[in-house]
Amino acid sequence: MESLHEIGIKYNTDKAWSRINKKGVKVYGHNYLKYYELFLQSLREHKFTLVELGCYTGASLKMWKEYFPHANIVGVDLDESLKKLEEDRISFICCDATSSDLPEKIVHYGQHIECIIDDCSHAWGDQRRTFEMLFPMLADGGYYIIEDLECGSMGAYPDYPPKVLDAQPFWDYAIDRARYLRVSRRRHPEEKRPYFDQLPPHIQEIEKSIDMAVIVPGAIIFRKESQERAKQECQII
Ligand SMILES: C[S@@+](CC[C@H](N)C(=O)[O-])C[C@H]1O[C@@H](n2cnc3c(N)ncnc32)[C@H](O)[C@@H]1O
Questions:
Q1: Tell me: the pLDDT tens digits for 7-43?
Q2: Which of 8, 16, 119, 199 can bridge 203 by disulfide, Cβ–Cβ 3.0-4.6 Å?
Q3: C-beta 60 within 6 A of ligand 1
Q4: Atom 14 of ligand 1 has which residue's CA nearest to it?
Q5: Considering Cα of 134, then 140, then 143, then 149, what sign does the dihedral take?
Q6: Which CATH class is domain 32-235?
Q7: Which ligand 1 atom sits nearest the alpha carbon of residue 57?
Q8: Does ligand 1 have an atom closer than 6 angstroms to the CB of 62?
């Protein structure tokens, strides 16, 4: 079986190590796929829905479809012309990723969402809003990936609108969401955490359900707690 990286190269997504640009020149990609595969290979044979926010040429949608032979792939983008990317096991939703209608639209296309990838505006306010809206929709044990945190760093994309040029607050926000992981969940219940009761209830819920946060160059991967796994672990004393 081909690796996620090999499939990414084949479809020319910039999530791979390299890609061929519009001028036919080989350029560096983000090189995310070797990291994603460490986690996502556990889903390879699952029947589930994967949602990607930001479709562009459809390269990554095709990659996900091939890597996950039983998954239902849902792409979301502002650009309505991308409806043309629809094919067997790939659906398209024309919507702003920050719109409050989005969860309802996603449910229409697929349930049991085990993976969400945010690869759209890369503006930190958008990433945050979308995360708070969609993370609760993830199935237990599912992954939520936010890409291209570099967009706001070091002026990498000086022509982007100003709201994009501020990755640091999103970075701090993402690290804050992982604060719950500082101590063992089983040994220190949340009422003992000094900051926790100051958070809004929906953020408390999100933090309590984050079971892992992994930072890779340019992206962050959150995993949602699996109640089943937590229950089994509690039985082992
Ligand atoms: C980086 S490209 C996606 C690349 C694609 N995921 C891949 O790896 O092949 C970003 C896409 O996000 C879309 N986009 C930008 N802002 C958006 C938003 N607020 N909501 C939905 N889509 C958005 C753009 O139209 C563009 O197609």
A1: 999 999 999 999 999 999 999 999 999 999 999 999 9
A2: 199
A3: yes
A4: 120
A5: positive
A6: alpha beta
A7: 9
A8: no
**148 pocket-lining for ligand 1 (C-beta < 6 Å):** no
Query: At a CB cut-off of 8 Å and minimum separation 6, what does 4 contact?
Result: 33, 34, 36, 37, 40, 41, 63, 67
Q: How far is the CA of 27 from the centre of ligand 1 (A)?
A: 20
* Ligand 1 pocket check for 77: Cβ under 6 Å: yes
User: For all residues of the chain together, what is the average pLDDT?
Assistant: 88
Residue 121, amino acid: S
Full-model pTM: 0.91
Q: Find out whether the beta carbon of 55 lies less than 6 Å from any atom of ligand 1.
A: yes
Each residue of 111-145: pLDDT tens digit? 899 999 999 988 777 888 999 999 999 999 999 99
Q: Residues 28-67, buried b or exposed e (16+ Cβ, 10 A)?
A: ebbbbbebbbeebeebeebebbbbbbbbbebbbbbbbbbb
Residue type, 77: D
Task: Provide the residue ranges of all domains of the chain, joining segments of one domain with +.
Answer: 32-235
